[in-house]
């Protein structure tokens, strides 16, 4: 076989289907020649053909010939091609998106390598198996194979890959929420990388340490190190995850402009790398930041993607639950087998054995019922969450449309009409007697003064100057003064050492809009004569209370009451709580609470 293999497969190795039309025929001729010469074992020939098809990305044919290699083995196990064939079958299954088959084939290859002393090849293979187990949601098995990989690489003094394996152990422990192990493995990864630089390990280890660090400033320093390593590496996978963590930390520190920049760059890298977990995380961050800035349409795009990806990630969680149940089942199965063996040894009677088997059947049925009920419950929760998030987005979009329509009407009915009148007056000016021109110019000046005042009023509503300069307390007092001048309702403002002006500008603007909407609701619906706005601090943080002496409201805060629902969701989006209740005596009480440092 060796001479046949060497003689006839070299031509196939060099055959390029883009330059020659005879490659497929060459494969058929090789097989025919081997059969004609009655070669007793064809595994190496079939393996060579399978390998050639893998290079052409024809995984169906590669898989077919690889299986033929297993069916025609060399009589001497040490000369067989099984190890390489299982690797090919694993690759084919992976590229065909069948993770379970891929893992099974790689495990079979590992079993062959385990028959000999530990080797670097086995250590690397264990790491590859761990990666696929992670993709399938089996975190516990992933940890098992990563530890086996690390043990071999450590024993053989590997310097090429051991730091990356240690950083993968840190990341997997992060997903299983074992913070102590995250720290241990991340520090090991960095220690290995000191002697033999590994940018993958450095970026991933610093990222993990940043995620578990409770001190925001230290977390930021670690995130910056992760970003620097990822930039030097230039790989979109690690750029996406490090930029996402940087955005998260900056957001917590209130540096929202920088956070938004990193979140949006993370989204670009995650899309390039098809990293859906990071894409989901960064979309949530970017969406919430755009909401705080009032960019509702962009926020809607990011949050819609977050919701969609969250649903797909939920399926991974279901897969993880299935794996846990399977593990539990296998453990119970082994325990039952031991129990049955003990019963045989002790020569228990048949009736007792039947009773135990009946109990086993009952446990299996109950386990199956539990699984399907839990699965249905999880799917239903995901559907309800999606409906809720869509309702939130719709309320934001509708609020934005209402604001656009209001501004459009004010510009069209007020400013545009007045500018039109001024234009017509100017056009008629040359035709008037000189003695009337001065009076006419005075009227035009009055029209333009009023128009200027209206434009300033519209601009003030978009971004009040007093809010930007002096903070939310003075802006609210100024707003109340304007309302009081209309005589529609008398509004008073009280600040009880709330320190609300210390919040970042985006939060102040959002809270100011909430107060405006609540006062507008009082004017439109409550028939109140008086309203009060109170800023204070309590154990829950910042406390803003808006009350009135109107007729009250008996409805619920849901998507049917879009104004109140929009307010509630805005407050929740920044980590706060909102309550709206009817007072015992008369009127309503609205309370917004926000946790602040």
Automatic annotation (TrEMBL):
Histidine kinase domain: residues covered: 406-597
Keywords: Cell membrane, Coiled coil, Kinase, Membrane, TPR repeat, Transferase, Transmembrane, Transmembrane helix, Two-component regulatory system
SUPFAM superfamilies membership: ATPase domain of HSP90 chaperone/DNA topoisomerase II/histidine kinase, HCP-like, TPR-like
Membrane topology designation: Multi-pass membrane protein
Protein's name according to its UniProt entry: Signal transduction histidine kinase
Coiled-coil stretches noted in the UniProt entry, renumbered to this chain: 315-394
Residues in TPR repeats: 83-116
Record Gene3D superfamilies: 1.20.5.1930, Histidine kinase-like ATPase, C-terminal domain, Tetratricopeptide repeat domain
TM ranges: 352-372
Any one Gene Ontology molecular-function term assigned to this protein's record: kinase activity
Entry keyword annotation includes rRNA-binding: no
Cellular location(s): Cell membrane
């Amino acid at each position: 076989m060796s001479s046949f293999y060497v003689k006839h497969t070299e031509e196939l190795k060099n055959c390029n289907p883009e330059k020659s039309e005879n490659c497929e025929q060459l494969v058929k001729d090789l097989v025919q020649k081997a059969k004609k010469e009655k070669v007793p074992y064809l595994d190496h020939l079939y393996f060579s053909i399978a390998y050639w098809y893998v290079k052409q990305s024809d995984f169906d044919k590669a898989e077919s010939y690889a299986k033929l290699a297993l069916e025609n083995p060399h009589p001497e196990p040490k000369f067989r091609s099984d190890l390489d064939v299982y690797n090919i079958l694993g690759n084919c299954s992976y590229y065909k998106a069948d993770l379970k088959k891929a893992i099974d084939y790689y495990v079979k290859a590992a079993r062959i390598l385990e028959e000999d002393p530990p080797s670097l090849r086995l250590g690397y293979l264990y790491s590859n198996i761990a990666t696929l187990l992670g993709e399938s949601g089996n975190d516990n098995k992933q940890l098992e194979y990563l530890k086996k990989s690390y043990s071999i690489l450590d024993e053989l003094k590997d310097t090429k890959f051991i730091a990356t394996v240690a950083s993968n152990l840190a990341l997997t422990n992060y997903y299983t929420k074992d913070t102590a192990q995250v720290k241990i493995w991340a520090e090991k990864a960095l220690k290995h990388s000191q002697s033999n630089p590994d940018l993958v390990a450095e970026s991933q280890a610093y990222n993990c340490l940043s995620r578990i660090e409770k001190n925001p400033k230290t977390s930021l320093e670690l995130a910056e190190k992760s970003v620097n390593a990822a930039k030097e590496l230039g790989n979109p996978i690690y750029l996406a995850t490090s930029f996402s963590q940087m955005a998260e930390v900056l957001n917590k520190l209130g540096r929202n402009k920088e956070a938004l920049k990193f979140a949006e760059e993370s989204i670009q890298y995650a899309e390039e790398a098809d990293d859906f977990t990071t894409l989901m995380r960064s979309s949530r961050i970017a969406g919430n930041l755009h909401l705080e800035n009032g960019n509702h349409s962009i926020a809607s795009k990011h949050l819609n993607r977050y919701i969609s990806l969250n649903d797909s990630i939920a399926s991974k969680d279901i897969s993880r639950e299935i794996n846990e149940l399977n593990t539990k089942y296998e453990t119970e199965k082994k325990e039952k087998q031991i129990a049955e063996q003990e019963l045989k040894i002790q020569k228990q009677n048949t009736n007792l054995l039947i009773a135990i088997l009946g109990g086993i059947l009952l446990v299996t049925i109950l386990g199956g019922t539990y699984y399907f009920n839990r699965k249905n419950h999880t799917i239903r929760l995901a559907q309800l969450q999606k409906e809720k998030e869509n309702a939130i987005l719709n309320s934001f979009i509708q609020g934005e449309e209402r604001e656009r329509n209001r501004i459009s009407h004010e510009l069209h009915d007020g400013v545009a009409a007045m500018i039109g009148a001024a234009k017509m007056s100017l056009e008629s000016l040359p035709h008037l007697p000189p003695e009337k021109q001065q009076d006419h110019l005075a009227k035009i000046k009055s029209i333009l003064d009023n128009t200027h005042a209206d434009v300033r009023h519209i601009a003030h509503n978009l971004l009040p100057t007093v809010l930007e300069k002096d903070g939310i307390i003075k802006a609210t007092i100024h707003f109340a003064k304007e309302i009081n001048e209309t005589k529609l309702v008398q509004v008073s403002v009280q600040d009880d050492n709330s320190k609300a002006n210390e919040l970042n500008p985006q939060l102040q603007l959002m809270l100011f809009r909430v107060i405006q909407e609540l006062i507008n609701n009082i004017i439109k619906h409550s028939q109140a004569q008086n309203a009060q706005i109170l800023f204070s601090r309590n154990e829950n943080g910042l406390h803003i209370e808006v009350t009135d002496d109107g007729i009250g409201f008996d409805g619920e805060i849901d998507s049917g009451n879009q104004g109140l629902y929009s307010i509630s969701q805005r407050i929740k989006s920044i980590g706060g709580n909102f309550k709206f209740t009817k007072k015992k005596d008369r009127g309503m009480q609205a309370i917004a609470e926000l946790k602040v440092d």
